[in-house]
Protein backbone atom coordinates (compact mmCIF):
# COMPACT_ATOMS: atom_id res chain seq x y z
CA UNK A 1 0.00 0.00 0.00
CA UNK A 2 2.84 2.43 0.89
CA UNK A 3 4.55 1.71 -2.44
CA UNK A 4 1.33 2.28 -4.36
CA UNK A 5 0.73 5.63 -2.66
CA UNK A 6 4.33 6.74 -3.25
CA UNK A 7 4.31 5.75 -6.92
CA UNK A 8 1.15 7.76 -7.52
CA UNK A 9 2.33 10.84 -5.64
CA UNK A 10 5.95 10.98 -6.87
CA UNK A 11 5.25 9.88 -10.50
CA UNK A 12 8.74 8.42 -10.97
CA UNK A 13 9.89 4.94 -9.97
CA UNK A 14 13.33 6.11 -8.86
CA UNK A 15 11.82 8.80 -6.62
CA UNK A 16 9.58 6.16 -5.06
CA UNK A 17 12.59 3.91 -4.35
CA UNK A 18 14.53 6.92 -3.05
CA UNK A 19 11.75 7.90 -0.64
CA UNK A 20 11.64 4.37 0.75
CA UNK A 21 15.43 4.33 1.25
CA UNK A 22 15.38 7.70 2.99
CA UNK A 23 12.75 6.38 5.37
CA UNK A 24 14.06 2.84 5.99
CA UNK A 25 17.80 2.85 5.22
CA UNK A 26 20.35 2.07 2.53
CA UNK A 27 19.10 -1.51 2.01
CA UNK A 28 15.32 -1.84 1.75
CA UNK A 29 13.50 -5.12 1.12
CA UNK A 30 9.89 -5.66 0.10
CA UNK A 31 7.79 -8.39 -1.46
CA UNK A 32 5.69 -8.09 -4.60
CA UNK A 33 3.83 -11.31 -5.31
CA UNK A 34 6.46 -14.06 -5.21
CA UNK A 35 9.33 -11.64 -5.86
CA UNK A 36 11.59 -10.18 -3.20
CA UNK A 37 12.75 -6.70 -4.27
CA UNK A 38 15.86 -5.27 -2.61
CA UNK A 39 16.64 -1.60 -3.27
CA UNK A 40 20.27 -0.66 -2.57
CA UNK A 41 21.22 3.01 -2.17
CA UNK A 42 24.17 5.09 -1.03
CA UNK A 43 27.91 4.78 -1.63
CA UNK A 44 28.70 2.06 0.91
CA UNK A 45 25.89 -0.32 -0.01
CA UNK A 46 26.12 0.10 -3.79
CA UNK A 47 29.90 -0.35 -3.76
CA UNK A 48 29.55 -3.51 -1.66
CA UNK A 49 26.87 -4.88 -3.98
CA UNK A 50 28.89 -4.31 -7.16
CA UNK A 51 32.01 -5.80 -5.55
CA UNK A 52 30.29 -9.06 -4.57
CA UNK A 53 30.01 -11.56 -7.44
CA UNK A 54 27.05 -13.19 -5.70
CA UNK A 55 25.01 -10.24 -6.99
CA UNK A 56 26.08 -10.75 -10.62
CA UNK A 57 22.99 -12.76 -11.49
CA UNK A 58 19.99 -11.54 -13.47
CA UNK A 59 16.36 -12.23 -12.52
CA UNK A 60 14.33 -14.93 -14.18
CA UNK A 61 10.67 -14.30 -14.82
CA UNK A 62 8.02 -13.81 -17.46
CA UNK A 63 8.93 -10.20 -18.35
CA UNK A 64 12.65 -10.93 -18.57
CA UNK A 65 12.04 -13.94 -20.85
CA UNK A 66 9.36 -12.22 -22.93
CA UNK A 67 11.84 -10.13 -24.91
CA UNK A 68 13.89 -13.24 -25.86
CA UNK A 69 11.25 -15.69 -27.11
CA UNK A 70 10.40 -17.13 -23.70
CA UNK A 71 14.02 -18.12 -23.06
CA UNK A 72 16.99 -16.65 -21.20
CA UNK A 73 19.01 -15.29 -24.11
CA UNK A 74 21.29 -12.37 -24.92
CA UNK A 75 23.78 -10.78 -22.53
CA UNK A 76 21.87 -8.03 -20.71
CA UNK A 77 19.39 -10.06 -18.66
CA UNK A 78 21.01 -13.49 -18.38
CA UNK A 79 23.68 -15.23 -16.34
CA UNK A 80 25.36 -18.63 -16.18
CA UNK A 81 27.52 -20.54 -18.70
CA UNK A 82 25.72 -19.32 -21.85
CA UNK A 83 26.03 -15.71 -20.67
CA UNK A 84 29.77 -16.21 -20.14
CA UNK A 85 30.13 -17.56 -23.69
CA UNK A 86 28.04 -14.82 -25.28
CA UNK A 87 29.63 -11.97 -23.37
CA UNK A 88 33.14 -13.15 -24.23
CA UNK A 89 32.13 -13.48 -27.88
CA UNK A 90 30.53 -10.00 -27.94
CA UNK A 91 33.46 -8.27 -26.21
CA UNK A 92 36.07 -10.05 -28.35
CA UNK A 93 34.21 -9.41 -31.61
CA UNK A 94 33.53 -5.75 -30.91
CA UNK A 95 37.21 -5.23 -30.11
CA UNK A 96 38.19 -6.98 -33.35
CA UNK A 97 35.80 -4.66 -35.20
CA UNK A 98 37.53 -1.63 -33.70
CA UNK A 99 35.43 -0.78 -30.64
CA UNK A 100 37.50 1.41 -28.35
CA UNK A 101 40.10 2.07 -31.06
CA UNK A 102 40.67 4.86 -33.56
CA UNK A 103 39.10 3.05 -36.51
CA UNK A 104 35.73 2.89 -34.79
CA UNK A 105 35.98 6.49 -33.65
CA UNK A 106 36.36 7.34 -37.35
CA UNK A 107 32.99 5.66 -37.96
CA UNK A 108 31.39 7.93 -35.35
CA UNK A 109 33.10 11.01 -36.78
CA UNK A 110 31.78 10.17 -40.25
CA UNK A 111 28.21 9.95 -38.95
CA UNK A 112 28.66 13.24 -37.08
CA UNK A 113 29.87 14.92 -40.26
CA UNK A 114 26.88 13.57 -42.23
CA UNK A 115 24.47 14.75 -39.53
CA UNK A 116 25.96 18.24 -39.29
CA UNK A 117 25.75 18.67 -43.06
CA UNK A 118 22.15 17.43 -43.01
CA UNK A 119 21.29 19.89 -40.23
CA UNK A 120 23.03 22.72 -42.08
CA UNK A 121 20.93 22.22 -45.24
CA UNK A 122 17.68 21.90 -43.32
CA UNK A 123 18.43 24.84 -41.01
CA UNK A 124 19.10 27.08 -44.02
CA UNK A 125 15.52 26.47 -45.19
CA UNK A 126 14.10 27.42 -41.79
CA UNK A 127 13.28 23.88 -40.68
CA UNK A 128 13.08 23.15 -36.95
CA UNK A 129 14.46 20.00 -35.31
CA UNK A 130 12.80 17.61 -32.82
CA UNK A 131 15.94 17.13 -30.74
CA UNK A 132 14.57 14.27 -28.67
CA UNK A 133 14.79 12.19 -31.87
CA UNK A 134 16.66 14.16 -34.58
CA UNK A 135 19.93 12.27 -34.06
CA UNK A 136 18.45 8.77 -33.80
CA UNK A 137 19.22 7.48 -37.31
CA UNK A 138 22.81 8.75 -37.13
CA UNK A 139 23.22 7.03 -33.76
CA UNK A 140 21.68 3.82 -35.08
CA UNK A 141 24.11 3.93 -37.99
CA UNK A 142 27.07 3.95 -35.61
CA UNK A 143 25.87 0.74 -34.00
CA UNK A 144 24.57 -0.76 -37.23
CA UNK A 145 28.02 -0.57 -38.84
CA UNK A 146 29.24 -2.67 -35.92
CA UNK A 147 26.35 -5.16 -35.95
CA UNK A 148 25.66 -5.50 -39.68
CA UNK A 149 28.52 -3.77 -41.49
CA UNK A 150 26.27 -1.23 -43.21
CA UNK A 151 24.63 2.18 -42.74
CA UNK A 152 21.46 3.95 -43.85
CA UNK A 153 20.72 7.41 -45.18
CA UNK A 154 19.64 9.86 -42.49
CA UNK A 155 16.23 10.33 -44.13
CA UNK A 156 15.48 6.61 -43.97
CA UNK A 157 11.96 6.43 -42.54
CA UNK A 158 12.22 2.80 -41.47
CA UNK A 159 15.27 3.51 -39.32
CA UNK A 160 13.55 6.53 -37.76
CA UNK A 161 10.56 4.33 -36.95
CA UNK A 162 12.88 1.64 -35.56
CA UNK A 163 14.57 4.14 -33.25
CA UNK A 164 11.21 5.39 -31.97
CA UNK A 165 10.14 1.79 -31.34
CA UNK A 166 13.31 1.17 -29.32
CA UNK A 167 12.64 4.27 -27.21
CA UNK A 168 9.10 3.14 -26.46
CA UNK A 169 10.23 -0.25 -25.14
CA UNK A 170 11.92 1.56 -22.25
CA UNK A 171 8.73 3.24 -21.08
CA UNK A 172 6.26 0.37 -20.82
CA UNK A 173 7.52 -1.39 -17.66
CA UNK A 174 9.94 -0.40 -14.90
CA UNK A 175 13.32 -2.01 -14.21
CA UNK A 176 11.91 -4.49 -11.69
CA UNK A 177 9.71 -6.10 -14.35
CA UNK A 178 6.44 -4.54 -13.21
CA UNK A 179 3.25 -6.36 -12.31
CA UNK A 180 3.60 -8.53 -15.44
CA UNK A 181 6.65 -10.26 -13.96
CA UNK A 182 4.90 -10.84 -10.63
CA UNK A 183 1.57 -11.97 -12.08
CA UNK A 184 2.05 -13.23 -15.66
CA UNK A 185 -1.59 -14.35 -15.82
CA UNK A 186 -2.56 -10.66 -15.97
CA UNK A 187 -1.68 -10.73 -19.69
CA UNK A 188 -4.91 -12.68 -20.20
CA UNK A 189 -7.03 -10.46 -17.95
CA UNK A 190 -5.71 -6.95 -18.66
CA UNK A 191 -3.11 -7.19 -21.45
CA UNK A 192 -2.89 -3.43 -21.97
CA UNK A 193 -2.57 -2.13 -18.41
CA UNK A 194 -0.19 -4.96 -17.43
CA UNK A 195 2.20 -3.85 -20.19
CA UNK A 196 1.99 -7.17 -22.10
CA UNK A 197 0.12 -5.85 -25.15
CA UNK A 198 2.21 -2.70 -25.64
CA UNK A 199 5.51 -4.55 -25.14
CA UNK A 200 4.60 -7.33 -27.57
CA UNK A 201 3.55 -4.81 -30.23
CA UNK A 202 6.94 -3.12 -29.88
CA UNK A 203 9.04 -6.29 -29.80
CA UNK A 204 7.54 -8.00 -32.85
CA UNK A 205 8.72 -5.43 -35.43
CA UNK A 206 12.15 -5.25 -33.78
CA UNK A 207 12.49 -9.02 -33.99
CA UNK A 208 11.31 -8.90 -37.61
CA UNK A 209 13.84 -6.25 -38.61
CA UNK A 210 16.73 -8.12 -37.00
CA UNK A 211 15.68 -11.49 -38.44
CA UNK A 212 15.40 -9.94 -41.91
CA UNK A 213 18.90 -8.45 -41.61
CA UNK A 214 20.42 -11.68 -40.32
CA UNK A 215 18.88 -13.67 -43.18
CA UNK A 216 20.22 -11.22 -45.79
CA UNK A 217 23.74 -11.54 -44.35
CA UNK A 218 23.42 -15.33 -44.17
CA UNK A 219 22.48 -15.52 -47.86
CA UNK A 220 25.54 -13.54 -48.89
CA UNK A 221 27.77 -16.05 -50.73
CA UNK A 222 30.85 -14.77 -48.85
CA UNK A 223 29.22 -15.10 -45.42
CA UNK A 224 30.97 -18.35 -44.36
CA UNK A 225 34.35 -16.60 -44.40
CA UNK A 226 33.35 -13.12 -43.27
CA UNK A 227 33.89 -11.55 -39.85
CA UNK A 228 33.32 -7.93 -40.81
CA UNK A 229 30.33 -7.46 -38.51
CA UNK A 230 29.06 -8.95 -35.27
CA UNK A 231 26.26 -10.77 -37.11
CA UNK A 232 28.57 -12.35 -39.70
CA UNK A 233 31.05 -13.36 -36.97
CA UNK A 234 28.18 -14.96 -35.01
CA UNK A 235 27.08 -16.91 -38.09
CA UNK A 236 30.63 -18.24 -38.44
CA UNK A 237 30.50 -19.42 -34.82
CA UNK A 238 27.14 -21.10 -35.48
CA UNK A 239 28.81 -23.36 -38.03
CA UNK A 240 31.20 -24.71 -35.43
CA UNK A 241 29.94 -27.90 -33.82
CA UNK A 242 31.32 -27.10 -30.35
CA UNK A 243 29.20 -23.93 -30.16
CA UNK A 244 25.99 -25.40 -31.52
CA UNK A 245 24.12 -25.23 -28.19
CA UNK A 246 24.81 -21.56 -27.44
CA UNK A 247 24.99 -20.02 -30.91
CA UNK A 248 21.45 -20.08 -32.31
CA UNK A 249 19.28 -17.77 -34.39
CA UNK A 250 17.23 -16.78 -31.34
CA UNK A 251 20.40 -16.05 -29.39
CA UNK A 252 21.69 -13.82 -32.20
CA UNK A 253 18.46 -11.81 -32.38
CA UNK A 254 18.45 -11.40 -28.60
CA UNK A 255 22.11 -10.32 -28.52
CA UNK A 256 21.52 -7.72 -31.24
CA UNK A 257 18.41 -6.48 -29.43
CA UNK A 258 20.39 -6.06 -26.20
CA UNK A 259 23.08 -4.00 -27.92
CA UNK A 260 20.51 -2.03 -29.92
CA UNK A 261 18.40 -1.06 -26.94
CA UNK A 262 21.11 -0.35 -24.38
CA UNK A 263 23.26 1.81 -26.65
CA UNK A 264 20.76 3.89 -28.60
CA UNK A 265 18.37 4.72 -25.78
CA UNK A 266 20.96 6.05 -23.34
CA UNK A 267 23.06 7.97 -25.90
CA UNK A 268 20.00 9.59 -27.47
CA UNK A 269 18.59 10.56 -24.09
CA UNK A 270 21.85 12.06 -22.81
CA UNK A 271 22.17 14.17 -25.98
CA UNK A 272 18.53 15.21 -25.82
CA UNK A 273 18.96 16.38 -22.23
CA UNK A 274 22.29 18.08 -23.07
CA UNK A 275 20.71 20.46 -25.57
CA UNK A 276 17.81 21.09 -23.18
CA UNK A 277 20.26 22.19 -20.51
CA UNK A 278 22.03 24.44 -23.01
CA UNK A 279 18.72 26.20 -23.68
CA UNK A 280 18.21 26.68 -19.95
CA UNK A 281 21.82 27.78 -19.39
CA UNK A 282 22.94 29.88 -22.39
CA UNK A 283 25.97 31.13 -20.45
CA UNK A 284 27.25 27.55 -20.25
CA UNK A 285 26.55 27.04 -23.95
CA UNK A 286 28.51 30.16 -24.89
CA UNK A 287 31.42 29.08 -22.72
CA UNK A 288 31.46 25.67 -24.48
CA UNK A 289 31.46 27.42 -27.85
CA UNK A 290 34.31 29.74 -26.89
CA UNK A 291 36.40 26.75 -25.85
CA UNK A 292 35.60 24.94 -29.10
CA UNK A 293 36.46 28.01 -31.16
CA UNK A 294 39.81 28.37 -29.42
CA UNK A 295 40.85 24.72 -29.74
CA UNK A 296 39.14 23.48 -32.91
CA UNK A 297 39.02 26.64 -35.02
CA UNK A 298 36.74 27.41 -37.99
CA UNK A 299 37.87 24.90 -40.59
CA UNK A 300 36.90 21.51 -39.18
CA UNK A 301 34.69 19.66 -36.72
CA UNK A 302 35.92 18.49 -33.31
CA UNK A 303 37.56 15.07 -33.27
CA UNK A 304 38.21 12.55 -30.53
CA UNK A 305 41.81 13.79 -30.38
CA UNK A 306 40.54 17.20 -29.23
CA UNK A 307 38.76 15.79 -26.22
CA UNK A 308 41.61 16.11 -23.74
CA UNK A 309 42.01 19.78 -24.70
CA UNK A 310 38.31 20.56 -24.14
CA UNK A 311 37.91 20.09 -20.38
CA UNK A 312 34.94 22.45 -19.99
CA UNK A 313 33.00 20.75 -22.81
CA UNK A 314 33.72 17.38 -21.23
CA UNK A 315 32.66 18.67 -17.80
CA UNK A 316 29.35 19.89 -19.24
CA UNK A 317 28.63 16.43 -20.64
CA UNK A 318 29.47 14.77 -17.31
CA UNK A 319 27.25 17.21 -15.43
CA UNK A 320 24.37 16.50 -17.82
CA UNK A 321 24.82 12.77 -17.24
CA UNK A 322 24.83 13.34 -13.48
CA UNK A 323 21.89 15.69 -13.09
CA UNK A 324 19.66 14.17 -15.79
CA UNK A 325 20.28 10.68 -14.33
CA UNK A 326 19.23 8.91 -17.54
CA UNK A 327 19.69 5.54 -15.80
CA UNK A 328 18.42 6.29 -12.28
CA UNK A 329 18.22 2.59 -11.39
CA UNK A 330 21.07 0.42 -12.65
CA UNK A 331 20.30 -2.73 -14.60
CA UNK A 332 18.56 -5.23 -12.35
CA UNK A 333 20.63 -7.85 -10.48
CA UNK A 334 19.83 -11.16 -8.73
CA UNK A 335 21.32 -12.67 -5.59
CA UNK A 336 22.70 -16.01 -6.78
CA UNK A 337 22.98 -17.37 -3.20
CA UNK A 338 21.98 -16.24 0.27
CA UNK A 339 24.41 -13.38 0.82
CA UNK A 340 25.09 -10.66 3.39
CA UNK A 341 25.02 -6.98 2.42
CA UNK A 342 25.76 -4.25 4.97
CA UNK A 343 24.61 -6.48 7.81
CA UNK A 344 21.45 -7.70 6.09
CA UNK A 345 20.86 -11.23 4.82
CA UNK A 346 19.71 -11.09 1.21
CA UNK A 347 17.88 -14.33 0.28
CA UNK A 348 18.81 -16.24 -2.85
CA UNK A 349 16.99 -15.13 -6.04
CA UNK A 350 16.08 -11.71 -4.63
CA UNK A 351 15.79 -9.01 -7.31
CA UNK A 352 18.35 -6.31 -6.45
CA UNK A 353 18.03 -2.73 -7.75
CA UNK A 354 21.07 -0.43 -7.38
CA UNK A 355 19.66 3.09 -7.02
CA UNK A 356 22.30 5.08 -8.95
CA UNK A 357 20.14 8.17 -8.47
CA UNK A 358 21.11 8.10 -4.78
CA UNK A 359 24.77 8.52 -5.77
CA UNK A 360 24.43 11.14 -8.47
CA UNK A 361 22.07 13.29 -6.39
CA UNK A 362 23.60 12.77 -2.94
CA UNK A 363 23.34 16.18 -1.20
CA UNK A 364 26.10 15.36 1.29
CA UNK A 365 28.60 14.74 -1.52
CA UNK A 366 27.54 17.17 -4.26
CA UNK A 367 26.32 19.89 -1.81
CA UNK A 368 23.87 21.36 -4.33
CA UNK A 369 22.89 18.38 -6.51
CA UNK A 370 19.85 20.08 -8.06
CA UNK A 371 22.04 22.88 -9.45
CA UNK A 372 23.52 22.47 -12.95
CA UNK A 373 27.19 23.29 -12.32
CA UNK A 374 29.77 21.78 -14.72
CA UNK A 375 32.64 23.19 -12.65
CA UNK A 376 32.16 20.37 -10.13
CA UNK A 377 33.90 18.12 -12.69
CA UNK A 378 36.91 20.45 -13.08
CA UNK A 379 39.96 21.09 -10.92
CA UNK A 380 40.44 24.52 -9.32
CA UNK A 381 42.34 25.84 -12.33
CA UNK A 382 39.56 24.67 -14.68
CA UNK A 383 42.01 23.01 -17.06
CA UNK A 384 41.53 19.36 -16.14
CA UNK A 385 38.54 17.04 -15.69
CA UNK A 386 38.32 15.34 -12.29
CA UNK A 387 36.55 12.07 -11.57
CA UNK A 388 34.16 11.40 -8.68
CA UNK A 389 33.78 7.99 -7.10
CA UNK A 390 30.04 8.59 -6.69
CA UNK A 391 29.65 9.02 -10.44
CA UNK A 392 29.17 5.61 -12.09
CA UNK A 393 26.54 6.07 -14.84
CA UNK A 394 27.60 2.80 -16.53
CA UNK A 395 27.50 0.72 -13.37
CA UNK A 396 30.50 -1.22 -12.03
CA UNK A 397 31.86 -4.71 -11.62
CA UNK A 398 31.60 -7.61 -14.05
CA UNK A 399 28.16 -6.48 -15.24
CA UNK A 400 29.34 -2.99 -16.22
CA UNK A 401 27.60 -1.72 -19.37
CA UNK A 402 29.01 -3.21 -22.59
CA UNK A 403 28.22 -0.06 -24.56
CA UNK A 404 30.40 2.32 -22.54
CA UNK A 405 33.20 2.33 -25.14
CA UNK A 406 30.65 3.40 -27.77
CA UNK A 407 28.64 5.84 -25.66
CA UNK A 408 31.46 8.05 -24.39
CA UNK A 409 32.98 9.06 -27.75
CA UNK A 410 29.56 9.22 -29.43
CA UNK A 411 28.08 11.65 -26.89
CA UNK A 412 31.20 13.83 -26.97
CA UNK A 413 31.47 13.99 -30.76
CA UNK A 414 27.77 14.62 -31.50
CA UNK A 415 27.41 17.23 -28.75
CA UNK A 416 30.61 19.12 -29.48
CA UNK A 417 30.04 19.19 -33.27
CA UNK A 418 26.54 20.66 -32.98
CA UNK A 419 27.67 23.19 -30.39
CA UNK A 420 30.59 24.17 -32.61
CA UNK A 421 28.61 24.62 -35.82
CA UNK A 422 25.24 25.96 -34.68
CA UNK A 423 23.59 28.51 -32.48
CA UNK A 424 20.55 26.78 -31.01
CA UNK A 425 17.29 28.39 -29.92
CA UNK A 426 14.06 26.95 -28.58
CA UNK A 427 11.47 26.70 -31.38
CA UNK A 428 8.57 26.15 -28.96
CA UNK A 429 6.56 28.75 -27.06
CA UNK A 430 8.48 28.08 -23.85
CA UNK A 431 11.63 26.31 -22.73
CA UNK A 432 11.28 22.51 -22.54
CA UNK A 433 10.75 20.89 -19.17
CA UNK A 434 13.84 19.28 -17.69
CA UNK A 435 11.70 16.56 -16.12
CA UNK A 436 12.20 13.28 -17.95
CA UNK A 437 9.71 10.68 -19.14
CA UNK A 438 9.69 7.78 -16.67
CA UNK A 439 10.50 4.16 -17.44
CA UNK A 440 13.51 1.86 -17.35
CA UNK A 441 15.42 4.99 -18.38
CA UNK A 442 14.56 8.68 -18.20
CA UNK A 443 14.23 10.33 -21.60
CA UNK A 444 13.69 14.03 -22.41
CA UNK A 445 10.25 15.47 -23.05
CA UNK A 446 9.69 16.18 -26.78
CA UNK A 447 10.98 19.62 -27.80
CA UNK A 448 12.05 21.47 -30.94
CA UNK A 449 15.15 23.51 -31.76
CA UNK A 450 15.84 26.20 -34.28
CA UNK A 451 19.44 26.15 -35.53
CA UNK A 452 21.50 28.85 -37.17
CA UNK A 453 24.93 28.18 -38.58
CA UNK A 454 27.40 30.10 -36.46
CA UNK A 455 30.68 31.82 -37.24
CA UNK A 456 33.69 30.65 -35.26
CA UNK A 457 35.11 33.49 -33.14
CA UNK A 458 38.83 33.12 -32.52
Automatic annotation (TrEMBL):
Record keywords, A-Z: Heme, Iron, Metal-binding, Monooxygenase, Oxidoreductase, Signal
One GO term (biological process): xenobiotic metabolic process
Highest rank taxon of the organism: Eukaryota
Entry GO MF terms: heme binding; iron ion binding; oxidoreductase activity, acting on paired donors, with incorporation or reduction of molecular oxygen, reduced flavin or flavoprotein as one donor, and incorporation of one atom of oxygen; steroid hydroxylase activity
Secretion signal span: 1-29
Co-factor requirement: heme
One GO term describing the cellular component: endoplasmic reticulum membrane
Family: Belongs to the cytochrome P450 family.
Protein name: Cytochrome P450
Source organism per UniProt: Anopheles culicifacies
Lineage: Eukaryota, Metazoa, Ecdysozoa, Arthropoda, Hexapoda
Amino acid sequence: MVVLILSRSLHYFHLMWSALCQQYGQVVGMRFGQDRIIVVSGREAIRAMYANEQFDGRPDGYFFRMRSFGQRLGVALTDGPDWEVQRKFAVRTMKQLGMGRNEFVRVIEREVQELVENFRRRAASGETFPMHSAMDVALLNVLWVLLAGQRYELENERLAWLAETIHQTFHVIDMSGGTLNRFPWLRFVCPESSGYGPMLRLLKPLWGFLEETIEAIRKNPHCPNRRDSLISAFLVEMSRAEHHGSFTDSQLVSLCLDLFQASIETISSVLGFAFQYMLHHPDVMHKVQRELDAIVGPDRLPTANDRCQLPYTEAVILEVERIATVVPVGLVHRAMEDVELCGYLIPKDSIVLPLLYSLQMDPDYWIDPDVFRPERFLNEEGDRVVQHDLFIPFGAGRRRCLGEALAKPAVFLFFSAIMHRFTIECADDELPSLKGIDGITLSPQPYNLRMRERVCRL
